[in-house]
Design brief:
The complex is a heterotrimer of chains A (309), B (94) and C (361). Chain A is an alpha+beta fold and 309 residues long. Chain A has helices at residues 8-16, 36-45, 96-111, 140-148, 181-189, 214-218, 247-257, 265-277, 289-297, and strands spanning 20-24, 27-33, 60-65, 77-82, 91-92, 115-125, 128-133, 153-156, 159-163, 169-170, 176-179, 199-202, 205-210, 225-234, 241-244, 280-286. Chain A has 2 domains: 3-111, no CATH class; 115-297, no CATH class. The two termini of chain C are 38 Å apart. Classes of the chains: A alpha+beta (309), B alpha+beta (94), C alpha/beta (361).
Chain lengths: 309, 94, 361
């Protein structure tokens, strides 16, 4: 059963009651909220997400709720709660929906240390993973959303999960976070994609969320082998520049942006080494999205390499 | 730098290596730090991993491998050792 | 009975791990979160791994246990490195440096080190050496954190401590103490006795650690006199681990009792032993009876503390809360302050804190 199979009343009752249990990739999440905005947007963006099985282990039990006290009514705010823990400062109530996304990302990046967790967009084609490790503002989300609707399966727009045991990339297939200019660009380019309304004045500017393609949600449990790691940067007016990148430098770049590389110590080092060794590494600067999509259409998979210890 | 004083890998911690085409990445098991170092510094570290060595011996090896000219070798070796010491990877033998 | 069981899932898991195979997924969900909140999740992983039963834990829950262990292992790596750096900074100063708590467990290879969440490193030096120690540490990159001038005075003038020192590059923190209780504490403990009894850590360095009885008492005092019980379960397990480890020497329980009475801290020892029995199921050795008699509170206080501790010692998690748990924690927090500072300092201090709306110190 999926979220879309619930009636509107059932969805709201679950969120306001014992919680809505959904599966996002490898994780079982329980979400509670009394806010209508949350119910509306979960119905919209998480429609294809499978519902949790009854009596399942819950990885993340979260709640989006107004704080106690004055800010419940006056210039209302909302809090993200993980059990009794409040990891972030409150945000204006209007930003409840992106806050849920950031909160769920925090849950994964703070706790899922069975994976090396990259700060990266990850997509898949023919069983190989295309990884974009890049700091915010680099244009990776725009590229990720475009590729996800152009023959590539979305694994995640934010969190690259690399299994420490076997080196495979695992996906979450959650909504894609878009910012500012890229919202308009993508809404124009992808008329059939489903978007939330824009949320203004957030810490990241104006953000909107794009529903993940149905196939990416349906196949979320399928991992991918390493394929390509591409360090990407959007630069207005630039010609497409796509060049092989030194693996030592790529290692350091990915290590510096990974959420738990330092924490995983030797295991993180070995896992990242294996990932970089078995991927083709490139640098990309672009401004023309069509040009880049065509480039990725032509991309050759790396030869399957023997993993050296 | 005393040319006859021996240097060693800071003891008690393992070093892990990743070989890139543009340098080598080394992980220090004590500090938990990761460094990208050039081939010459990596060669030096590998030499020290086999046993403690004097700067003279190290610079001879670098010259023999063609990594540096003979007349520049002592200064180059001293610089590499100092840099690696700063990163906590090597130290003079007590 | 069912209500109690949910509240004490974490307690049960550590005390009787043989009952874990019967846990439902929902119970595992709660157990993981309770254990995480009280800092014992990694310890649970370590215990199950040592027993060889870790692979029987359902995979989804096991991932959380393993993740916690990874965090603890990383902290252990960092702590080890910090101890190396502290040696480098202080070893040839001639000042006797005593490692406290986690740093001591780690350096000496004691049981509570495994699965432990290390944070700051705590060391103890003679009071007369505080200034020199601060200077040396500053030379090696540690600096007093930028504190509000009020907080600086709190530490230096009122509590006779150094504020925490943070390393400028690594970001790690050292707390430099000269005793195990603040000088202003209601328990007047002469820290010179602790220094005199300190023993070498045994790793070939000049670093020292508290004598076994003092180490146990320090852990007890830290738990029962500080006011913060969030990690109560973890601290109680540390205390238990130490008592079990040192009791390999049959003379240890008597020595512990004598020392507690001699240092005037039989009361916290009493609470520790009572709660070790109630939560961990371990009765106190008969040689400890004299100290328990000496330390037992009067009936009114005893009843009150029992009710407060019953609430505060459980993990800080909604599934562990009973009626008045919040009140209990607040009362114990205030008690901690009251024990630390005499009224003439305490009242203005609390007033200042309320005014500034923070919860440090």
């Amino acid at each position: 059963m999926r979220v879309a199979d619930l009636s509107d009343a059932e969805l709201r009752a679950a969120l306001q009651g014992d919680g809505l249990d959904i599966r996002t990739g490898p994780f079982a999440c329980r979400i509670r909220s009394e806010l209508p905005d949350i119910a509306d947007n979960i119905g919209l963006l998480y429609a294809d997400q499978p519902l949790g099985q009854s009596d399942e282990f819950i990885d993340f039990d979260v709640r989006i709720a107004p704080p106690r006290g004055l800010r419940r009514w006056w210039r209302p705010q909302v809090l993200f709660r993980y059990d009794d823990w409040v990891p972030f400062k409150p945000l204006p109530a209007d930003q409840a929906v992106p806050m849920l996304e950031w909160g769920l990302n925090w849950c994964v990046s703070s706790h899922a240390h069975q994976y090396l967790i990259l700060h990266a967009a990850v997509l898949e084609k023919d069983g190989r993973a295309l990884i974009f490790p890049a700091p915010p503002g680099s244009g990776k989300s725009t590229l990720c959303a475009a590729l996800a609707c152009h023959g590539w399966r979305l694994l995640s727009d934010e969190l690259g999960l690399i299994d420490l045991q076997d080196g495979h990339c695992h996906g979450l297939a959650r909504p894609v976070n878009l910012k500012n200019r890229s919202i308009d660009v993508l809404q124009e380019r992808l008329p059939e994609a489903v978007f939330s309304r824009p949320f203004r004045d957030t810490a990241k500017g104006t953000v909107a969320l794009m529903r993940p393609p149905e196939e990416s949600v349906r196949r979320a449990a399928e991992p991918a082998m390493p394929g390509w790691i591409v360090s990407v940067r959007y630069e207005a007016g630039a010609r497409t520049h796509f060049k092989a990148c030194g693996k030592g430098r790529m290692f350091m770049q990915v290590a510096n942006t990974a959420f738990n590389y330092i924490l995983l110590a030797q295991r993180g080092f070995r896992s990242l080494g294996q990932l970089v060794r078995t991927s083709d590494c490139y640098e990309l600067v672009y401004s023309d999205l069509d040009d880049v999509l065509a480039l990725f259409d032509r991309l050759e998979p790396p030869e399957t390499r023997e993993v050296a210890g | 730098m005393e040319q006859a004083e021996r240097w060693r890998i800071a003891p008690g911690y393992e070093l892990l290596w990743f070989e890139g085409d543009d340098g080598q990445v080394v992980y220090h098991g004590g500090s938990g730090d990761t460094h990208l170092i050039d081939e010459a510094a990596a060669a030096l570290l590998h030499l020290l991993q086999s046993r403690p060595q004097t700067p003279i011996a190290l610079s001879s090896s670098l010259v023999a491998d063609g990594r540096v000219a003979a007349d520049e070798a002592p200064e180059y070796t001293a610089m590499l050792l100092q840099e690696l010491a700063r990163l906590g990877l090597v130290e003079p033998c007590p | 009975m069912r209500q109690r069981l949910i509240r004490e899932l974490a307690v049960l898991a550590l005390r009787s791990p043989e009952c874990l195979p019967g846990f439902t997924p929902a119970e595992w969900s709660l157990l993981v979160r309770q254990a995480r909140n009280s800092g014992v999740l990694a310890r649970l992983q370590a215990r199950l791994e040592a027993q060889g039963t870790l692979q029987d834990v359902p995979l989804a829950a096991r991932n959380h246990l393993e993740a916690a262990r990874r965090i603890a292992d990383k902290q252990m790596q960092s702590a080890r490195w910090e101890i190396v750096q502290i040696r480098a900074a202080l070893e040839d100063s001639g000042i006797p440096v005593v490692l406290l708590k986690g740093a001591a467990y780690l350096a000496a290879g004691l049981p509570p080190a495994i699965g432990r969440m290390f944070a700051d490193i705590d060391i103890m030096v003679p009071e007369t050496a505080l200034e020199q120690v601060e200077k040396r540490l500053m030379l090696h990159g540690w600096m007093a954190e930028k504190l509000h001038p009020y907080d600086q005075r709190y530490y230096r003038e009122w509590m006779h401590e150094l504020p925490p020192l943070r390393h400028c590059r690594r970001g790690t923190v050292i707390d430099v103490h000269h005793g195990i209780l603040p000088r202003t504490s209601r328990y007047a403990l002469d820290s010179r006795l602790l220094h005199e009894a300190a023993v070498p850590v045994g790793d070939g360095s000049a670093l020292r650690m508290l004598a076994p009885a003092d180490m146990v008492l320090h852990s007890i005092v830290h738990l029962f006199c500080d006011g913060e019980f969030d990690r109560g379960l973890r601290d109680l397990y540390d205390i238990d681990d130490l008592i079990v480890h040192f009791s390999a020497d049959p003379a240890f329980p008597a020595r512990l009792a004598d020392r507690a009475i001699a240092l005037g801290i039989a009361r916290p020892l009493y609470y520790a032993l009572v709660w070790r029995q109630r939560l961990l199921g371990k009765p106190a050795h008969e040689d400890l009876e004299p100290a328990m008699r000496a330390g037992a509170p009067g009936p009114v206080i005893g009843l009150l503390m029992s009710a407060l501790l019953e609430r505060a010692m459980l993990p800080s998690h909604p599934s562990c809360d009973q009626a008045f748990t919040g009140v209990a924690r607040n009362l114990l927090y205030m008690r901690g302050h009251w024990l630390r500072m005499p009224p003439r300092l305490l009242l203005p201090h609390l007033w200042r804190k309320a005014w500034r709306g923070d919860s440090e110190n």
